[in-house]
Amino acid sequence: MFFTQEQISSLLTGVSATARDRELEETLTNLSPRLAAKRNEYRHFGPYWWWVKPLVKRFPGARKSWLRGCYQDTSFLDSVDAVSPLLPSLEEKEAGRWLAWLGLRYYEAEIVDETPASLHIVERANKTVIAYRIYDADASEQMDLFGENTDSKEELEQFLADPVRFSGSAWLKRADAYIEEGDLLRSSAALRRAVDRAIDEKDRSTAWIRLGQVFQEHHHTRKAIFCFHNAWERDREGWIQGLIAEAYMEDNQTHQALSCYEAALQAMPGNPEYQAGVERCRRLIREQPQGFSLDPDHQDTNQIGQNQAAP
């Protein structure tokens, strides 16, 4: 999902099941009327929404609203294993409550903007990373063709009042403050909005690179590799291959790092940093125990899902 195992352990330290349930009760009681009224607000929970939604249903603010629907993104849920990495010994219901509690942490950081982001970066249990656009069919509604579209009107009013807030470059600048504070969640939230609201592919590539650097700094290495690959797909500068190579090295994927360093050298011949990277990779590969293989062109099999670039 989003949090690393180390972050989950840190967040859960000192939090009892009783304290967890009390916070879920208080927070979701207050939020349920807002969620019922603002149909896209659920996106602030990101991928954790699917564990929050079952809990929200029973609160008074959810009565006779779209929240009572039964839609679940089963294709997404089948592709992730959020429960096992969390607390393997817990039964599913109990683990689900902890995941909903983690959703509150995610929600708090996502409130950097009244317009929720649909784009979220998710690492699955098999170590592949995807750009996940959350969609709850229960929140959809047929547009009233003969009346005013209230949501569109509200968004237009927000845009007219503060048009800069809707630009990708503004979100890049806003992310700087969160990065300076070392706030992974809010800087990620700001940079994902920069990706979505960029006016051209050059700006979108910049946002992907910055997001990758934030993830790498906070040891979300697989997500960093995914982001750098997205940047490369949009702006094929050799130095981006260098960023990918460094991230692969941190993730102990030496063969992949070597390929990227070599690609970076093709674009920037003689670069001493990339030459040193190639030599380091080759040395490490030589030092690795050589097991029996029928494939002479062995490559690391533990690879990121880099081809699943976000639109």
UniProtKB/TrEMBL annotation:
It comes from the Bacteria. Residues 291-311 are annotated as: Disordered. This is Putative negative regulator of RcsB-dependent stress response. Pfam families: TPR_21. It comes from Alkalispirochaeta americana. Residues 166-271 form the Ancillary SecYEG translocon subunit/Cell division coordinator CpoB TPR domain. Residues 301-311 have a biased composition (Polar residues).
